[in-house]
Amino acid sequence: MDEVYKLIADLSPEAQLAVDLKSRQLLYVNRAFRHLTGIDSEVISLDDVMNLVHAEDLEFLKNSFRNILQEDNPSADIRLETANQQKWIRLKAVMTSLKSEQVILAYANDITAERNNMNTIKKYTNKKNSTLNILSHDLRGPLSMANTATKLVKQGIKEPKLIELTQTVSSILSSSIDMINDLVGREFSETTDVELVKQRINIVSKLQDYMEEAQRSESITKRTFKFSCSDKSIYVNLDEAKFMQVINNLMTNALKFTHDDGIISLHISDQRNSVLFTFSDNGIGIPKPYHPTLFAKFTDARRKGLHGEDTIGLGLSIVKTIVEWHNGKIRFESKEGEGTTFYIEVPTG
After folding, report:
1. Where do the structural domains in the chain lie, given as residue ranges?
2. pTM of the entire structure?
3. Contact indicator for 139, 180 with CB cutoff of 8 Å
4. Distance (Å, rounded) from C-alpha 51 to C-alpha 55?
5. Cα separation of 121 and 177, whole Å?
6. Is the dihedral of CA 213, 216, 220, 226 positive or negative?
7. Which fold has domain 3-110?
8. pLDDT tens digits along 305-322
């Protein structure tokens, strides 16, 4: 290793290490790296460093370094199991030549606090979205029925003051329904207008939180929510906010078209190079004439829900677009009176 590089790197507050590309040997680590990892041995091998990497992140890290020849300044967020705690580390790497050696220079930054904060925010955002879907379904139905009842009562009233009062009640109910529709629609459409930003996430953990929130509402929604997965941890590169809107939309549709005491279920399956999401219900199903145009932007397949719930409009069209942004595919199977199942498959990388 170049002594000048070592001198400069030792003074840097950023953790650094150098790996010989040909021999796969660790050539150097600076003081900041030793402090970050808690390794205090005089001699450190690449195995010492790799042994700190969380088992679920090992293959991902190896693949990231394999891609260094094809990418400019690749980076990877991984977990290290240090003596004191688990740390999230962001590694950035470049390839260079030092005294005719092909060397990978890696720079590591502790992003534990950042990841913990983001995970907390996203966790409660997903819970909020699940709750929002349940509330919007539970509120729109009764409000619509109350509005219809008010209009019927109005027809049998002749007293001007009572007519005016029922008109006021009907107006308030209509405004409340419009506000709920606008809130749900805005939440969905605004997310899709933002640039795609993918990150490697444990999708099982994210969707488990989401479905657990739905399960807490089973006594209110009178639906049973089931969640299952092929593995406890399944990692995939996704734009979490956008992908969760796909789940939100499918959940909204399932709630609208599934009778009381119905079942809504989500299963996640690791297909090695892709992840398959199976979202199903035993609701009223989709009439066969609507199948060819279900994902079209301006489709004739739009229907009011069982309790008169309005559709967002471009929902399934945008769902298909988001899935395709992730280089994925979406399809469905449905039979009237038996229910609907959506299949979404996205590559893990």
Report:
1. 3-110, 114-347
2. 0.63
3. yes
4. 9
5. 28
6. positive
7. Beta-Lactamase (3.30.450)
8. 555 555 544 578 888 988
